[in-house]
Write a structure and sequence with these properties.
The structure is a homodimer. Chain A is of the alpha/beta class. The first copy, chain A, has 3 domains: 206 residues, FAD/NAD(P)-binding domain (3-Layer(bba) Sandwich); 114 residues, 3-Layer(bba) Sandwich (FAD/NAD(P)-binding domain); 111 residues, Enolase-like, domain 1 (2-Layer Sandwich), CATH 3.30.390. In chain A, strands 1, 2, 5, 6, 7, 8 and 19 form a 7-stranded mixed sheet that branches. In chain A, strand 1, helix 1 and strand 2 form a beta-alpha-beta unit. Chains A and B meet through helix 3, helix 4, strand 3, strand 4 and helix 5 of A and helix 3, helix 4, strand 3, strand 4 and helix 5 of B.
């Protein structure tokens, strides 16, 4: 059967659903196509279940502070692994149900539960059907990378696709790859009582390029579970368990969490029929401001792009792609200030320009270690560091890296300020409540302020009426 | 002995010390005068020990969520009152020591541990000495109000001056006055196991004027301890305990925390010699932008003003007063966007224009209840409400009231945005990370957005490049 539509969206994940929300405002001639598991990566195996596990780990971990606060009996607390995992799944199911009930559950023939394959930029094979579409949005997402050789170890190699399905916590686990999910889950599982070893072939964690913040983060997290950095991991079978070796170090574990990144889902999509060059991952070039692929009526959004694999960016890209899919001519939109948060404890966040992209000759850096900060001391979380980067001439904020309690919230303040083009002086005139973690940011800004060439007159905190 | 100085600062609390920091940049001819207890209200009996107590209450209270998370043994946890109180004092002492070591500990003859009394706008009697000062800063702070009649009940009536000195937690307590400190301490003590009854003669709590947010806050907090609102409390002796009655309701308690506000410290200051009118509290009029009293070389800052009794405002006022005390002509400065946070759980915050000052005809209100919000559900804190007010014509943000987990952090985002004059549309273009409490604010902003007359073209989240 041939079907003619204005827009075909391939992928019913977050990016595809955001695209759909825009498309629907312009036309009811659309199809949403997804032959895989529904409910979004975010809700099923990503943001949501990981945060639920982190919360359990955090609450259980706080017992270490109970004695100093006069709370007795903390040493008798124990974690029931199966129940904790069930709690995580219960919450996950709530989130997945919510996604489904807001999307495909209420769709009729506009939803096709099939794989899609391009025949040309405006024609798709979807199961038995041919879809002719004036525009197509590619939002097929990504999946975890697992080295071919590790497949031999069967279900002892986990990815986030399986992790939250576990019925019991393993006694020991190696987490290989300490980017966002590896670090978050490594710490959460360690706090739940799993003997975790964290391994990464790079010498940093959570994508922290700033060497000072990276060192503080490694020192803090490394106290909770060993971090083996800068060595590739090798796995072999030993007495029915897995021997994981990285450089000189080696550990025997029950399970391995492979968290070495994700690969765009492009196999079988027929992108070669688009008539544009594909890179080594099989991806076509696209414009990050219009999400358009070349000059084609084809748009791409979300994790499949291999960039900014973060929900709110998938939302922005989906909106841009969906909006442009129904315009006569695609428009270019500003992208948001980069904001990446790792919900480990303390949070790690990177905001604005990446450290490696900054010109050391042109920036000033303000920094603070959180040690003596009042509120952090009260929270029992007085480890951390905040570094803020600004143009050293005029004090305009460019970026920040931090490892800090409530770092997720500081990161929003910083991202919003950078997006508005504010300077360190603008920020020092803002209210900082006492006692708050925001005062830690304030201390970093005071440090930064002294390093800027052009200073305002009078007290820096005061602005003339 | 007569002493001539450029500036005399009366009061070595937060406002006085901030004033001093400005004065020192211009002259070393100054005196700081304080005949009372040193260490600041904030560190000794205010912000800091209250937050320490709240943290203990919060950590102990979380045990109620342990079972659903698979953490076993929570029902066997107990709070050792004397140890919890000692922990609070230990932290307090750290903060007080830090204040002292950064201020009066290192001062020599510039610090006078005496009471000061004006003889004229430029002359002070300080113990045996006369100080002639070119300018004077009044920063004498405030003290808790206790009705005269209650003095008969002796040390069973507590204020924040004594609360943190308790060696043991009382079994029962009435907290009379549910503004900032009363509500915070009422909840913290209830969570620590004290049978608390909260009473206020007004029908609101934590200064919440917005009736919707007030109701949600009363519902949430009222589940932890009874709140008797809208009735004046009366106390009488009964069998060695205190019978506290408010309207039809009555309770027998061991102690009463009087938290009915604070009174400016002006007695004996000789303000009548300034030659300007004094109000019924004994305070002269002053300019909130210059902190100048009339046309005199006299400035006033901090809690003694009877306004904005919040540390960061004392800091701003102290800076303005200190800076102006050493200028030829006082300058007028902008004040920060109002920001008031109550650290009860969930936090209550009021930002920007007060509800009662808004013109209902000219504003639009965006609101959200936090119930189904992902992150709040994960945290086990899915009760709350956020209301944001904007100009209904152009969407410029005017203020907000909220009761929400991490409300302290949302309040900073809102205050900074309001101070920069941003609109609801500007904010919807900002990154909101997932899953975060900031997404609750985002939901309120979406609700608000639809109620604004002048809408931008295209998707509200996207800005043309």
């Amino acid at each position: 059967m041939d079907k003619h539509v204005d827009v075909a969206i391939i992928g019913a994940g977050s990016a595809g659903l955001y695209a759909l929300s825009q498309v629907r405002q312009a036309t009811d001639r659309y199809v949403l196509i997804d032959g895989g598991e529904l409910g979004t990566t975010c809700a099923r195996v990503g943001c949501m279940p990981s945060k639920a596990a982190i919360q359990v780990g955090e609450d259980f971990h706080r017992r270490g502070l109970f004695e100093r606060m006069g709370i007795e009996g903390g040493e008798a607390l124990s974690l029931n692994g199966p129940e904790a995992l069930e709690h995580v799944r219960d919450l996950r199911d709530v989130f997945v149900d919510k996604v489904l009930s807001n999307s495909t559950d209420n769709m009729d023939e506009e939803f096709l539960a099939e794989q899609a394959r391009f025949l040309s930029p405006t024609e798709l094979q979807v199961g038995e059907d041919r879809i002719q579409a004036k525009a197509v949005v590619i939002a097929t997402g990504s999946r975890p990378v697992v080295p071919k050789a590790w497949e031999a170890f069967g279900d002892r190699i986990l990815t986030t696709d399986d992790l939250f399905e576990l019925e019991e916590l393993p006694a020991s686990m190696a987490v290989i790859g300490l980017g966002t999910i590896g670090l978050e889950m490594g710490q959460a599982l360690a706090r739940m009582g799993v003997e975790v070893t964290g391994i990464d072939q790079l010498d940093h964690i959570a994508g922290l390029q700033d060497p000072e913040v990276r060192q503080v983060a490694v020192d803090i997290l490394g106290k909770e579970f060993p971090l083996w950095l800068g060595q590739t991991a090798d796995i072999r079978e030993e007495d029915g368990r897995l021997r994981v070796t990285a450089g000189e170090q080696s550990v025997l574990v029950d399970r391995v969490l492979a968290a070495m990144g994700r690969r765009p889902n492009v196999e079988g999509l027929g992108l070669e029929t688009l008539g544009v060059p594909l890179d080594e991952r099989g991806l076509p070039a696209f414009d990050t401001h219009s999400m358009q692929v070349g000059e084609l009526p084809v748009f791409i959004a979300g994790d499949v792009t291999g960039e900014r694999a973060i929900l709110h960016e998938a939302g922005t890209e989906g909106r841009i792609a969906g909006y442009n899919a129904v315009q006569e001519r695609p428009l270019a939109f500003k992208r948001q200030t980069p904001l990446a948060i790792n919900f480990c404890d303390p949070n790690i966040a990177v905001v604005g320009s990446a450290w490696n992209d900054l010109d050391p000759e042109r920036i000033a850096i303000g920094e603070v270690k959180l040690g003596p900060l009042g509120r952090a001391l009260i929270m029992g979380k007085n480890k951390g560091m905040i570094r803020v980067y600004a143009d050293k001439d005029d004090g305009r904020l460019l970026g920040a890296s931090l490892v800090a309690p409530k770092g997720e919230n500081l990161a929003h303040l910083l991202a919003w300020s950078i997006q508005r083009g504010l300077t360190v002086f603008d920020l020092l005139r803002m209210p900082f409540y006492h006692p708050s973690i925001e005062e830690g940011l304030q201390a970093a800004l005071y440090d930064l302020r002294g390093k800027i060439a052009r200073q305002p007159e009078g007290p820096v905190e005061l602005e003339r009426l």
